[in-house]
Design goal:
single chain; 74% helix; transmembrane; transmembrane helix; membrane; mainly alpha
């Protein structure tokens, strides 16, 4: 029993080995067979797609000579023939359009009517324009453009000048300062009218109290400098001045031209009165014109910024004008010093009027 079992098991092993060898031989063949079938399917699909594309191409672009294309054979030859046929048709259309354009264009000659086609394909006759007429039309258009430019420049200049006058009219009194310069170029000396109050003060230098009188008279211009520095907020104000006064000074300092105009008036007044007292009377008259122009321009600036003064400011200014007119003889220095004080005070009061209108109300 044992030898038989061993022989049976050996037979089974031999059969298994032979079956395994057979499978190993058959498997590559089956794989190759499967791949060949797939390649055939792909080839059939590619062939069908190529034939479908060829049919679509022939439908879209019909061939003029099918027999010659069939004789030539192949997709490449038919494609080349179709492309050449399309190029021929394009050249024909271009030549026809060029000839149409050439025939419809008109020659620039006098009185030579030409035919042109509109968008609807209808022909219409047009008369050509001569070069001289074209030149006249061009010159007319250029003239109109030049007139428009000149008109725009004139309008812009007018509006610019009106705006400058509206903003800077307060400087017009400064033209008085140009009179001495104009007379200098003419070789003459500028003089003031006889009714104007320019008093020679050379006699004060011979007085025993000349130093005190002349010094006090010139020192009265300090009120202009104090007022101008206050308007520029350059004077330190303590708590004793009050919150309202400090706020007023800071408000005026927002327009530094106000304080600068008052300081300039004080500086010019000091130079003018120094020459009036210690220099020549002719030069004093020329400086008087400059001093008057600066004072009037400063007053016009306050009028532009703050409007008409209040009755309190008018009273202060009126008192200063009475002192400036010098109603008594021999007291010019004293009364004119009062004019310096009242005019400087009036400038501060005028600024306070504008402050009340803008801030407090």
């Amino acid at each position: 029993m044992t030898p038989l079992k061993s022989s049976a098991s050996s037979n089974h092993l031999r059969c298994g080995k032979s079956a395994l060898k057979l499978l190993l031989c058959i498997a590559p063949l089956s794989i190759l067979h499967f791949l060949s079938i797939g390649n055939c399917v792909l080839a059939l699909q590619t062939t069908s797609s190529i034939s479908h594309a060829r049919v679509q191409h022939r439908i879209k672009y019909p061939q003029p000579c099918s027999s010659s294309l069939a004789a030539a054979g192949g997709f490449d030859s038919s494609h080349r023939a179709t492309s050449s046929w399309r190029r021929t048709n394009q050249r024909t259309r271009l030549d026809s359009s060029r000839s149409t354009t050439t025939s419809t264009s008109f020659d620039v000659q006098v009185g030579n009517p030409q035919k042109r086609t509109d968008r609807n394909g209808q022909k219409k006759e047009t008369t050509s324009v001569s070069p001289s007429r074209q030149h006249r039309q061009l010159s007319k258009s250029n003239t109109r453009k030049a007139l428009k430019y000149i008109q725009s420049i004139a309008v812009a200049s007018f509006y610019g000048a009106s705006e400058a006058i509206r903003q800077s009219w307060w400087l017009f009194p400064m033209t008085l300062a140009l009179i001495p310069l104009y007379c200098f170029f003419l070789g003459t000396r500028a003089t003031v009218p006889s009714w104007y109050f320019v008093v020679p003060l050379n006699h004060l230098t011979h007085s025993p109290y000349a130093a005190a009188v002349v010094g006090g008279f010139l020192l009265s211009n300090i009120f202009y400098f104090i007022s101008g520095l206050f308007m520029l907020d350059l004077i330190p104000l303590g708590r004793a001045a009050g919150r309202r006064v400090r706020k007023f000074s800071r408000h005026l300092a927002r327009d530094p031209l106000l304080g600068a105009s008052v300081i300039t008036a004080g500086l010019v007044s000091t130079i003018y009165h120094s020459v009036q007292t210690l220099g020549s009377y002719a030069m004093a008259q020329e400086l008087c014109l400059i001093d008057t122009g600066v004072a009037l321009s400063s007053s016009a600036l306050f009028l532009k910024n703050f409007g008409l003064p209040s009755w309190k400011t008018s009273i202060i200014g009126g008192a200063g004008i009475l002192a400036w007119m010098n109603p008594l003889d021999g007291s010019y220095a004293g009364f004119h010093s009062m004019w310096h004080f009242f005019s400087a005070m009036a400038s501060v009061s005028w600024g306070f009027d504008g402050f009340k209108r803008e801030v407090l109300l």
